[in-house]
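ENTRY TYPE: paired fold submission
RECORD: A
CONTENT: sequence, then structure tokens
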Amino acid sequence: MAIKVGVIGYGYWGPNLARNFSQIDSTELYYVSDLDSSKTDQVKKIYPNVKTSADYKDILNDPDVDAIVIAVPVAKHFEIAKEGLLHGKNVLIEKPMTASVKEAEELVELAKSKNKVLMVDHTFEYELAIDRVKEIIESGELGDIFYFRADWLNLGLLQPDVNVIWDLATHIVSIISYVSKMEPVSLSANASAFIRGEIPEVANIHLKYPKGITAYIMVSWLEPRKTRSITIAGSKKMLVYDLTNEEEKIKIYDKGVDLAGNIDNVRELKVNYRYGDIYSPNVKKVEPLSSMCSHFADCIADKKEPRSSGLSGLNVVRILEASQKSLDNGGKEVILKDD
């Protein structure tokens, strides 16, 4: 029997989630709620058999609903997710999971006590190209990782309730955590607000990981060109992931710096710059959002822990909250754990 899904919020991301759950064999798009009647009118036109309501509590109180999908502003994530779990629903939350670590921790514990699936929509963790990047790192082809550099830039969408870090950096943080299996030990952040004065539209985050590995992240809502790229520099090779390049999302560069001579004497060192081949591995094209939605359904059916679990969402929120703390303290370094 198909898992009956209720989508709460039909604004920017909700329609994409609803579309995917309506297309997956193992799920049935059963209910959609939104405060805006024009949104629910759209739902009725596209999905005439789907129930609609202006009040999300109608979804929670419907005994036929197996799972809820939350696609509303971040400030409401915790409240609705908690209510959903208390009503015995499995819960999928749009990123970021919550607005604070405290809220995320409570949801993780509640889901555990209720034996329900709690999952976060970290969409890019379900991108086949990101899976391939993870495989390449684990194979050792890049050698020892030196650093990550990520640019997630575009014009808009300016969010009313969160700054650019909470919006765009969420993607990068979840990707780096997923492909590297590492969590940062400290970070520092700085940001600027040019348009509205109080909510930064441009930000930089510097994360420090174990073994001296670092990550440099830039996010912006004020860029003329859409950029979605991550560079991974290794001791053997370098990799560039470019989401906007549909044909060659991954490029591996046999480039680097090799040293020869007496390493104890800088003046006697010989520096050789390596310029080798560049190649792009073939990656099958599959919509990551579809894979994510299918995974959610599989986790409910098989009672298994999701890839982007509540704990994964908590770890990302912990980094976002620490970034906010750094911003509030003039870019001061925030310690997350001992190296």
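RECORD: B
CONTENT: sequence, then structure tokens
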Amino acid sequence: MNKKINVGLIGTGRLGTMYAEFLASRVPAARLVAVADLVPERVERCAETYGVPKVYYNHSDLNDDPDVDAVIVTATTVNHMEIVVDAAEKSKPVFCEKPMTLSLKQAREMKTVIEKQGVFYQQGYMRRFDKGQAAAKQKIDAGVIGKPVVFRGSSRDPYLPTLEYLRPENSGGQILDMAIHDIDIARWYMGEIATVFAVGGVLAYPEVEETGDTDNVIMVLKFENGTLGEIDISRNGIYGYDIRAEVLGTEGTLKVGYLRETPLLVLKAEGVTHDVVPYFPQRFGDAYVSQLNDFMHNLQFDKSPMITIDDGIAGLQVAVAATASLKENRIVSVKNY
């Protein structure tokens, strides 16, 4: 399929609109031919903005479109399974954003259908396409820091989402919503996770209490190879969007991440200042584009994806286990979920 690929985009909210812009302007192998969303004014605005010829008001009609070669799913997570299964049953290659679903049962059902239909599936984890994260993986594999023995991941959001979104039935809970990328990077760098212990609470925003969720969580990990890890996530990184990863090895350490958005320092008598990364579109915009270009390349040249449905399930499995640990205040074994 060494030609332009006609893409249908399902979900035109905040992330979907970003994807539409990227597909229309920064992914040469893609031709965005259709968009779908349950909210008419949202999908119509997206189509008009990016010159998309076809508009649908449900995923099924887009998946039925014979002009659509492949489907990209950026809809609300609770709808992922229905959309992906429908696309797979109509023989459409699928790219699905994280997390693949909110439940392991649904994730495993998705895998069953995808394998039965024999369709291509690529899981979205854009941090693997970030230049810093990818460079660290290369250094680890090359043995630059010796044997990796400790992983640390940190994700801090600059502001609180709506309380409606925070409800676990919508977001999956803070761990699944915020830590799924850190979990994927931890697995990528260190191997599979054997056990997890999570502690957390409502520490910064009392209003979160009514949702049944947390605003700060720390997770301690033990990998199957005996190495260790820690992930901390926070809703109150009020100074900016702060995403970091660190790997301690027997011969050195790797640190990934940055806080300053513009390579500029302002030096005055009052002190030295700089700006900060505002949020994820600025921090990971290029990584999203690289991920989409990779999806197109895999379809064009019949390549297997770096990030498979098994990676999606494995990350979700750890997040579900960590959430159980948080609720039950005990160390849990990931394989039991």
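NOTES ON RECORD B: The domain at 131-283+315-336 is CATH 3.30.360.10 (Dihydrodipicolinate Reductase; domain 2). The chain has two domains: 5-119, 131-283+315-336.
STATUS: closed
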